[in-house]
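Intended use. Records such as the Carbohydrate porin entry shown here are meant for training and evaluating sequence-to-structure methods. They are not intended to support clinical decisions.
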Amino acid sequence: MKASKALTLSVLTLAISSSYAVATEYDFSMNGYIKAGIIGNSDGNRVDSVGLMPDGKWRLGNEQNTKIELLPTIQMKAENGTIARIRANITHETTCTADWNCEDGDGKDVQFREGYAELTNLDFAPDVTFWAGKRYSSSNYSSHQYDWEFIQYNGTGGGFDNVDLGFARLDAGIYAFTPTSEGSQPPADISDQGYPEDYSIKLWLKQIADTPIDLQVVAHHMNNNVNRVGAAESGIGLTGVYTLGSFYGVADGFSKFVFQYGEGLAAGDSLGKNGWGWANLDDTRSWRVALDGVASKGNWDFATFAFYQSDENYRWWSSDNNGWERSSWAAGIRPYHQITKNFAMQYELGYEYLDDENFMGQNGNGKGGLTKLTIAPTLTFDTGYWNRPQLRFFATYATWDEGVSDALDANYDWGSNAIMPGNYTASGKTDTLNFGIQAEVWF
């Protein structure tokens, strides 16, 4: 009797699973990104990247960190055509700067930076993609040359993409993201329940009136915690993007013109981002212009990037009562020459300038410039600036003004609230000659 019941149950289970398998198609893919290498100087010591800005840097011959990013994706298609897409983003990086499971403080764990599901081709909205979970915004954008994602909305939430409004396509989402323990601090108002968190609502209008113009509007909210009494609790940011299918109309390639403005929580270090403005003031104001593009001509490609940013009543993550003025800009070019199918020469010249009268809230030296030059013989898998893998052997020379000695390679000691000298500036030198090797892969 027991055997008969077990056999009946097994047959029923097999029938159900078989019918489900027929009704659903599965597809598995794995994408990823790897960069890893070593930088040493003329003294025979290992060194870090060299740069002035807290976000980006001229990356060619200037990356010492290892980053491994794996993106396993499962796509399912139902018999009625509905498509489900499930993705995770599993990352290891030698420096962890966000809420990616860096629990033990060393920043070297494996982090789950994404874990979400999408549904599209639904019977009532076949062209719209709905999502929920932990995800990067589909509108994020970075300069590969400067290694900076200056449009960056990440976090846990939900939303939809690709709603046809007639005059434009609309993406919308809500994101919760706090990159440090700020969000876990008790609220400043002890009558509040829970803990403060940065909530951001993002609206993105794409290809407005059939033009290459996109417009993004984002609104932030975060209650004060006990460490940030008096900080901004709200903010609004705007981003406009004009994209060309050529290099500013003068050569093959692509180019983008980006303008960004933010106030309150959407200004300063959180301009174009979410989750980095918890120390901002209500009257913190920021604006930025960025130009990014790649020109192609024959066996040559020329990557270019430039930006200018101005901050008013800016306040760093410290607890200063007042804000101050800050401005920064950078401009650079990376020529890429494909000599044979498997060998290329890359060159990069970049300049950065910082004018921060109260660097890291310490009245530190934050005014001056840095020039960086790199030559990189490169082994290539195939031809073209964007083709990977690449194995690079490089020599990098950098020189900087004494006025930015605190900003260069700065190390902020949270215990003593002081800026500690980095390995470039402790000896009083104002230049360095570095050498190294790096692999960069995406697939």
